[in-house]
Predict the 3D structure of the following.
Amino acid sequence: MKNVVITGSTRGLGLEMAKEFLKVGCNVTISGSKPESFAYAKEKLIGFEDKFIYITCNVRNITDIRNLWLSSIEKWGSIDIWINNAGQNCPREFLWDTPDNYIDAVVDTNIKGVMYGSKIAAASMLKQGYGQIWNMEGLGSNDMMIEQTILYGTSKRALTYFTKGLAKELKNSPVKAGRLSPGMMLTEFITKSPTGEVSSVTQDNKFRKVFNTLGDRPETVAKFFIPRILSNTKQDAHLVWLTNRKSAQRFMMAPFNKRELLK
């Protein structure tokens, strides 16, 4: 079975993907930016102790990412799948009201972190002769523009361009690069601000209505992604959970299908 590395996998979609990989027999390296980040994830992975390891990795630091690869190789012998999932959100503010440190955090995590991870994984997978790199899309990847979220959206739009370009550069190689598009999910990215407080967006009635129509729990999306990742043979693959057709169907059925992810 495959050996998998997932950045930002101590909670949310990253953790749910790790669980799904483990359920089908894969070996998984779980990572988070701090040693204490693993406390929550460990409780969710009881029964799989011999199939995963935890490595602290701040994706803003390429040395940490290099260590993540080397530590995983030392444990598993090879890496078949590398998923750049770690992400950084910011307060829902107009750009001019956004603190400077969040600009650095979003760019360093969502853009540079993905570039660092892709660089290390691609170089090493080319040497081993196989492997897949997957990058996580988000709001902005498809050019959707929402006020007070443009910093995050810009980072995700850049990620899409970068990943398509990486796939183009890898086109004649045994290494594949692809994108994962999870749609809207009920995670702390939605429910909490970066400082841990209840997010103001959850109090917005219009947003809650849209989210309850289109949103999903991360475990639902993980169950969709994992078998498709494992069976993928395409370069520049794009796995989309919330398709335009699915969105349209949900809006049509909204009056009859009451969904209350956000209450």
In short: The chain has one domain: 3-187+217-242. The beta strands are 3-6, 27-32, 52-56, 81-84, 131-136, 175-181, 238-240. The mean pLDDT is 88.
